[in-house]
């Protein structure tokens, strides 16, 4: 497991916040302070909560696996939000040509539409992970029971498509919160983040390549998407570059030293 645990996490934030709040209440009782210190304290608390929820690498609510603990030039590629009826097949073709194994964090309702594509990725030796059922923009507002339902449903869909029940889960948008922590505990799924975000859905292929080359590091877990045409030139550019620069692309199981499916 990733040994990195944030200095400031949800627990330590609350340990700091509530005693300070109590002191302010006492001071207020003796009419030493006004309303302003409360407002500043609450604003600070909310800012830290928002940053902690938005950045999975901070391990704010729980520890996610965001990179491999290695000094070797080993990295893993991950593709989110598929399967896509055309793009995923093109990605599989390129990966096959370069003899590269990757991980696909798939959306349950999309696997239901294209189970044969997820099955093909699995058959090619790629890892299939759980990326929720709906990938709803409101996913992070769901209560633990609803989240658990989405996670279990998607794991079952993956089991039907591949014959294996996944152990890896990547939160939609990389957002974490206490409800997701509960859902992960219930489903026993392992949260996986990333260390290099390509921003491939928003930037041009050239900019993405520049960013990837600049941020590449030993143990990197790269976040990509098999949902848009740009991924083709990005892969055509980055795969030879990685090879030329001595990087070895490996599976998440090897990089993170974890089991990725339940035992049958
Ligand atoms: Zn996603």
Summary, kept brief:
The protein is about 45% helix and about 10% strand.
Topology:
Elements (H helix, E strand, L loop, with lengths): L9 H20 L6 H19 L19 E7 L6 H11 L5 E4 L1 H6 L1 H9 L3 E4 L13 H19 L5 E2 L8 H10 L2 E2 L4 E2 L7 H11 L5 E5 L5 H14 L3 E2 L2 H5 L8
Parallel strand pairs: 1-2, 1-7, 1-8, 2-3, 4-5, 6-7
Helix pairs in contact: 1-2, 3-9, 5-6, 6-7, 8-9
Bound molecules: zinc ion.
Zinc ion binds next to loops.
Features:
2 domains, alpha/beta, two-stranded parallel ribbon, TIM Barrel, binds zinc ion, 264 residues, six-stranded parallel beta sheet
CATH superfamily of the largest domain: Glycoside hydrolase/deacetylase
Series of secondary-structure elements, N-terminal to C-terminal: HHEHEHHEHEHEEHEHEH
Structural category is alpha/beta
CATH class of the largest domain, anyone? Alpha Beta
CATH fold descriptor of the largest domain: TIM Barrel
Low-confidence stretches: none
How would you sum up the major sheet? 6 strands, parallel
Number of strands: 8
SS element count, helices: 10
Number of separate domains: 2
Q: In which range does the helix fraction lie?
A: 40-55%
From the alpha-carbon coordinates, what is the Rg to the nearest angstrom? 21 Å
> How many angstroms does the end-to-end distance come to?
23 Å
Label the CATH architecture of the largest domain.
Alpha-Beta Barrel
Q: Tell me the strand percentage band.
A: 5-15%
Average residue pLDDT: 94
- What ligand molecules are bound, each kind once? zinc ion
Principal-axes shape call: globular
């Amino acid at each position: 497991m990733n040994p990195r645990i944030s200095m400031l996490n949800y627990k330590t934030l609350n340990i700091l916040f509530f005693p300070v709040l109590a002191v302010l209440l006492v001071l207020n009782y003796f009419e030493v302070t006004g309303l302003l210190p409360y407002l500043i304290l609450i604003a600070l608390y909310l800012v830290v909560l928002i940053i902690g929820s938005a950045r999975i690498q901070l391990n704010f609510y729980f520890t996610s696996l965001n990179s491999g603990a290695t000094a070797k030039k080993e990295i893993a590629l991950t593709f989110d939000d598929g399967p896509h009826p055309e793009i995923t097949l093109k990605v599989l073709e390129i990966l096959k040509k370069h003899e590269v194994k990757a991980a696909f964090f798939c959306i349950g309702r999309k696997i239901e539409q294209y189970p044969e594509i997820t099955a093909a990725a699995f058959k090619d030796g790629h890892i299939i992970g759980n990326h929720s059922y709906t990938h709803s923009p409101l996913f992070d507002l769901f209560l633990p029971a609803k989240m658990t339902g989405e996670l279990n449903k998607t794991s079952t869909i993956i089991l039907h498509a591949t014959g294996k029940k996944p152990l890896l889960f990547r939160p939609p948008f990389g957002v974490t919160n206490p409800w997701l922590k509960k859902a992960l505990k219930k489903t026993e799924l392992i949260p996986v983040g990333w260390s290099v975000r390509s921003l491939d859905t928003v930037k041009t292929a050239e900019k993405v390549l520049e960013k990837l080359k600049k941020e590449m590091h030993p143990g990197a877990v790269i976040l990509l998407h098999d949902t848009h045409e740009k991924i083709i030139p990005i892969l055509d550019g980055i795969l030879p570059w990685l090879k030329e620069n001595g990087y070895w692309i490996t599976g998440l199981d090897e990089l993170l030293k974890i089991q990725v499916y339940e035992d049958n």
